[in-house]
Amino acid sequence: MNAILGDPQRIQSLAEDFVKHYETRISEGATIKGKALFVCSSREIAYEFYKKVIALRPEWNEIKIAADNEILSDEEKIKIKPLERIKMIMTRGKDDDETLYKLLGTKEYRKALDAEFKNEKSNFKIAIVVDMWLTGFDVPFLDTIYIDKPIQQHNLIQTISRVNRKFEGKDKGLVVDYIGIKRQMNLALAKYNKGDEDNFEDIAQSLVVVRNHLDLLARIFHQFDASNYFEGNALEQLNTLNMAAEFVQQTKETETRFMGLVKRLKAAYDICAGSEQLTPQERDYTHFYLAVRSIVFKLTKGDAPDTAQMNARVQEMIKDALASDGVVEIFKMGDEKESEQDIFDEDYIAKINKIKLPNTKIKLLQQLLAKVIGEIKKVNKVKGVDFSKKMQSLVERYNQRDESDVLRSEVYEEMAEQLTNLIWEVRKEFSAGDELGIGFEEKAFYDILKDLCIKYDFKYPDDRMIELAKVVKELVDSQTKFPDWSKRDDIKSSLKVGLILLLDEFGYPPVERDEVYVEIFEQAENFKKNRTA
Which residue from 61, 336, 368, 383 has the fewest beta carbons nearer than 10 Å? Predict the structure, then answer.
C-alpha cells in the first residue's frame, strides 16, 4: 500500500488535482476562510507531496502576513505572524534530512502554528498532516479535509469531524476522498450513529441536486428575460440583477421559495464546485441566482451572505456598473460606509424614493426604518416598541400582497409613502421633548412614566411628571457612572433603592403597583446600557 500511495507519478497527479480543486473552491467562494487539512499516509509521502505542491505553486511558499484577499488592521498586522500558505505539521525525526528537519521545527513552533491556523486571517491556510491535528483540534471555519490515508472506524469519525463544526455561513464540511474511504465512513457512521450506509452526499449526488435546483429556479424565472446578464455590458448586467431581484419579490411566497431553493443550491454547489462535470452554463446560472439572492438578502437583512460566492466576473461587473453615472446603487445601500451617515439624510431617502423597482424601494425603506427605530429604542424603550408595532403592521400588510397587486402601482406607492412618513415620524420624536422643556433622554423617562399612568389607570400631574423625569435621569446618570455597572449587583441594587425612594418622594405612583417600579428600572437599564455601548 505504501509503495502504491508513494508512487512519484501518483503523488504528482495528487498534487496537481489538489491545487486545482483548492484554487477552484477559493475562486468560487465555496470555502469560508480557505483553510484545509491534507492527510497523508506517512511522513515520507507527506514531504514528497509538499515538495510537488510547492513546485506547482512557489508563491505558496512565500512568507506573508496574510493571504491576498485578507484585509488587516494595523493592530492585526502586529498580532499575526508572517507565514507561508502551506505547512507540514509533523514531529521531527532523527533521520530527517536537514531541509525537512528545519521545516518541521520544534514543539514550541508547532504550538505557534496551531494558533495561526486557528486565526481566520492568517496566511497559513493549508496544513499537511499524518497523525497530528486529526483529533481534538477544533477550527470552526475549517471546511475542507483531503484524505489520502487508510483510516477506519472510530479514528475515521474523529478525522472527518474536523470539518463538521458550526460556523456562520458554513452549512457543512467537505471530505475529499483520494483513497476510497466512503464505504468505511458509512460503516463507521452506521456503527456509531445507527444510521444507514447511504448517508454521505458525494459529488455525484451534489451534481444531481444542483441540476434539479437549477431546473426548479428556471421554472420560477421562465417569464423573466435574463439574457442581458449573460450577454450585456456591465450596466445592463447590474440592471438585470436588480430587475431579477424585483421579479422574485412579486409575492412573499415566491420570494420565500426562491431564497430557499438558492440556499440549497449553494450548499450542493459548494461540494461539487471543483467538478469538471459542471458546464459553463450551469456555473453561470448558479452565480446569477446567487447574485440575485444576495440582493434580496441584503434588502431584508442588510448584509449579503453570498457575495464571495460570485465569481470574479460578477464582482468586477458590479464594480464597473456602480462606477457609472445614473445607476441605482442598490448594492451600495446598507453597506458599512453608507450606515455611518446620518440616518435621516434627506438625500439618501430621496435616492431610495427615485428607485423605479417598487418592491426593492419598499425593502430599502423598511431597512432604513428598522435602523432608525433601533436608534430610538436604545434610549426610549416605550417609543421604540410603539414604532416597532407600527412598522410590523405595515410589513404584515406588505407581506400579504398577491400577484394581482403587481399591476396596481398605487398599492406600492401607498406602502412606500407610509414607510417614509413613519421614518419622519420617528425623526420628530428625537426633538419632541423640546415642547416640554426637556431633552431627548429625559423624555424617554417621561414617556415611561406617562405610559404607566395609562397602562395601570391612574392620574398624575403632567408638570410633576416632567420634573420627575429630569431627576430620574440625573439619578440614573449618577448611579451608573462606573463602566462595569451592568455587571455589579451592588450598583444595580443601589439604583433600585434610589429609584424607589425618589418615586416615593414624588408620590408616584399614587396607587400600590409594584410592576411600575420594575418597568421603570427596565427603562433605566436599557437607557444606560445603550448609552455607554
Answer: 336
- For the stretch 189-199, what's the b/e string if a residue is b when 16 or more beta carbons lie within 10 angstroms of its beta carbon? beeeeeeeeee
First to last CA, the chain: 61
17: cell is 488535482
- SS3 state of residue 146: strand
H or E element that contains 175: strand 174-177
- The whole-angstrom separation of Cα 396 and Cα 391 is 9
For residue 363, the 8-state DSSP code is: H
Position 336 scores a pLDDT of 44
Distance CA 93, CA 81 (A): 26
Of 266, 156, 141, 274, whose CA–CA distance to 214 is shortest? Answer: 266
CB atoms within 10 A of CB 486: 14
What is the pLDDT, as a whole number, of residue 379?
Answer: 84
Which of 156-160's residues contact partners 24+ apart within 8 Å by CB, and which partners? 156/181, 156/184, 156/185, 156/188, 157/188, 157/189, 157/192, 158/134, 159/39, 159/134, 159/135, 160/185
Residue ranges, comma separated, of all CATH 3.40.50.300 domains in the chain are: 2-199
Beta partners for 64? Answer: 83
**Apex CA 399: angle with CA 395 and CA 404, to 5°?**
130
Round to whole Å and give the CA distance between 85 and 66: 9
The CATH classification of domain 2-199, taken from the options 2.60.120.10, 3.40.50.300, 3.30.1330.60, 3.40.50.150: 3.40.50.300
Torsion of CA 125, 126, 130, 135, to 10 degrees: 40
Residue 200 CA to residue 188 CA, distance in Å, equals: 12
What's the helix, strand, coil split of the chain in %, to 5? 65, 5, 30
Q: How far apart are alpha carbons 57 and 54 in whole angstroms?
A: 5
Alpha carbons 302 and 299: distance in angstroms, whole number: 6
What is the pLDDT at residue 434? 87
What is the mean pLDDT of each successive set of 10 residues along the chain, which is 533 residues long?
A: 90 96 88 94 95 97 84 79 95 90 92 93 95 91 94 83 85 87 75 54 85 96 92 85 90 92 90 85 92 84 55 60 50 49 68 79 84 85 88 84 63 83 87 87 87 86 90 79 65 79 84 71 72 52
